[in-house]
Amino acid sequence: MLLTRLPASSIGAMLLVCFQVLSVNAEDITGRYDVGVHYDKAEVMIPMRDGVKLFTAIYTPKQRSEPYPILIYRTPYSIGNYGSETYPTAEAMAPSAEMVEDGYIFVYQDLRGTYKSEGNFEITRVNREPQDGPLATDESTDAYDTIDWLIDNIDGHSGRVGQWGISYSGWTTVQGMIDAHPALKASSPQASPSDMFIGDDWHHNGAFRLTYAFAWLNFAAQDREAPTEEAPEQFSYGTPWGYEFFLNAGPTSEMNKRFFKGRVPAWEDFIEHPNYDLFWQRRNMLQYMDNIDHPVLNVAGWFDAEDFYGPLSIYQEIEKRNPNNQSTFVSGPWRHGGWKRDDGSSLGGFKFGSKTAEYFKENVVTPFFAYHLKGEGDWDADEAIVFQTGANRWRHFDEWPPKEVKYKSLFLASNGALTFEKPLAISLYDEYVSDPKKPIPFTKDITVGWPGHTWMIEDQRFVSTRPDVLVYRSEILESDLTIAGPILANLFISSTGSDADFFVKLIDEFPGDIPESSVETASMAGQQMLVGVEVMRAKYRDNFEFPQPLKPGVVTPISFNIWDKFHTFKKGHRIMVQIHSSWFPAYDRNPQQFTDIYRATSDDYRTATQRIHRSKDAASNLVLPVLIGN
Fold it and tell me: How many domains does the chain have?
C-alpha cells in the first residue's frame, strides 16, 4: 500500500455559524482516549475521474488483528489537524467516541475546491446529467471515486463502507447515497439540507435568510487562488449589533461589492435567481432519492435553525420512493448539530431531564453503524426515534407521524383567544401596522450572528407586547395535550400592500406561578417557549417559480407548513400563537410591495396594514397533529 504523507502545518480557523468537526493535538491532557496512541495516520491526495485530487486524512487502527470497516466524513469546513503527527480527539473523530475505541478506519476529506483539495468549490453543486459525459463530476461521483480508491489502495479494511456528516457534510452524505458505490452499506446524513429555497439554509418559502447567508458565504464561499489550509479572512461588522448593521446595509444586490469586495461570487446567484427557477430546482436533492437500497439514519433537531426541513423531507422522500429501505428518522431537543456540541441536557435555559445527546450516541448512532458495518449487535430500530419535549422522554414509533394522531383545527378568536370551535361571525379580523423600517428583531440578544443557536427555543415575551405582533392564547389547559407531526397554518389575510411576509409562531406559555412541587423551576414562570415557527412570503403563496402580487384589500388564503414537532403542552400551560410580518435580520425585510426584493432600495420599503381574518368564511387556524391516548 502506498500512502503519501504531507508536511505538518497549522489548522484552519473554525467556522462560527456552522458545525464542523472540532480538533485538538494528539496529547490529551484530560486523560481521555488518545487517538494518536491507537491509530496510524496518513495524508493522501485521492484522484477523481476528471484528474482533480482531493486532500484526505486516513486514520487506521494500529491493532491489525481484524479487518475494519471504513467510515467517511467529507466537509467544506476543513478537516483540520493537518500534518501526520496531529490527531483529533476521539469525541471529534466519529459520531461517538465509543466508535473510535471499537475500531474503524476513519477517513476525512476536504471537498473539491476547499482548503487543501484541488479544483473549484461550487456551493451545493448541481448533480450531473446523463448527457454530461463520463468525466462529468458532482459530489456523488466524488464520493464514489473516493470509496473506489480507498477499497483499492488501503489495507486492512472489511470491504464495508459507511458515510456520515452534519450540516453541509450531511448534504455530502446524501450525495454519496445517490448512485452509490456498491461498498457503501450505511449512511447517516445529519441536519442535511434538501432544498435551499423551500425550507433550508438560504430561504424558507422564498423568504431570504439574510444573516445566515451573509455569514456563511463570507466564510465558506470566498474565492481562493490555490489550495490552502488557512481559513479565509473574516468580515468585520464594525458593530456588535447585527440588527443595526443590516438595517443600514443598503440593497442586497450591492452587498457583495460593498462588503465582500467581489470575493464571494456565489452571492450573485441569489441576486440573479430571486425565484424558484431552474437554478434552485436542480439543487433540490429530493428528486434524486430513487434506488436508495442501503440503511439510512436520518438525524434532525427539533430546534435546528438551519436544517430541519432537510432531514425530515429526505426521510419522507426515501420512504416514498424506496418502501423497502431500512430508513430511520431521529429527532431530539437539539440546535443545529447539538448532539455533537454538548450533552443535550438543556437548551436556552429549558431543561430536558436527561443527557439526550449521550442517549443518541449510545443507543442510536453507535449501534446503527456497528450492526450495518461490523455485523455486531441486534439493531432493529423502529421507524422513528424521537424525543418528546415537554414530557421529556424518548419515544419509538413504527411510523412517523404516529398513526394515533388526529388532526384538529385551532382557530383564532376574539379578544386574542384560541379555540377548537370554528367561528360563526361574519367579517371579523385583527390588524396591525407593519413598518419595514422598524422590523421585529428575531432575538433579544445583541449579536451579529446566531445567539448560541438558541433563538429557535427563545422566550418570546420580548416581542409579545409590540403593537405589530398579534397574540392569541388558549384557555389554561386542564390536561396535557401532545402534538406529533406537521402543523399547518391556514391564514386568511388582506393587506394594503401588494406583498407581505407572515410569520406564525406556535408557543408554549408556562404558568405565571409554578408550584414548588413542579419539575419546572421558578425561573420558568410565565415563559413563552418557542416550539415552532415558519414564514410565508405572500407572493409565493401559489407558486414559488412564478410569484403573484397581492390585491390590496382582498381577502386571500395562505397556507404553509410549520413542519413537524413532538411536544406536550402540559396541564396548567396555555397554547399561544403569535403572528407578525418581519423577523429581522434572520430574514430580509419585505418592502410590502411586489418587487424584486434583492434589488430594492430604501425608498421601496413602505408601511402596510395587515389584517388576519377570523370569521365564518375566513377562519384563520392552525391544524395541530394531536396524539390521542399517549
Answer: 1
Q: Is the CB of residue 180 less than 8 Å from the CB of residue 289?
A: no
pTM flag (> 0.85): yes
Range of the domain at 436: 405-627
Torsion-angle region of 431 (φ positive above 0: left; ψ -120 to 50: alpha; else: beta): beta
Q: Is residue 384 part of a domain?
A: no
For 7-32, b/e burial (b = at least 16 CB within 10 A) is eeeebbebbebbbbbebbebebeeee
CATH number of the domain within which 607 lies: 2.60.120.260
Q: In this structure, is residue 296 part of a structural domain? A: no
Whether 571 is in a domain gets the answer yes
Q: Give the whole-angstrom CA distance, residue 630 versus residue 627.
A: 6
Contacts with 580 (C-beta within 8 Å, 6 or more apart), sequence order: 432, 434, 440, 463, 466, 468, 469, 470, 502, 503
Q: Do residues 613 and 518 make contact, with C-beta atoms less than 8 angstroms apart? A: no
Model confidence over 304-358: pLDDT tens digits? 999 999 999 999 999 999 988 889 999 999 999 999 999 999 998 899 999 999 9
Query: At 452, is the pLDDT very low, low, confident or very high (cuts 50, 70, 90)?
Result: low
How many CB atoms are closer than 10 A to CB 429? 17
Instruction: Report pLDDT digits (tens) over 470-511.
Output: 999 999 999 999 999 999 999 999 999 999 999 999 999 999
- Is residue 323 reached through a cis peptide bond, with omega within 30 degrees of 0 on the bond before it? no
Tens digit of pLDDT for each residue in 16-29?
334 343 333 333 33
Is residue 96 one of the residues assigned to a domain? no
DSSP type of residue 477: P
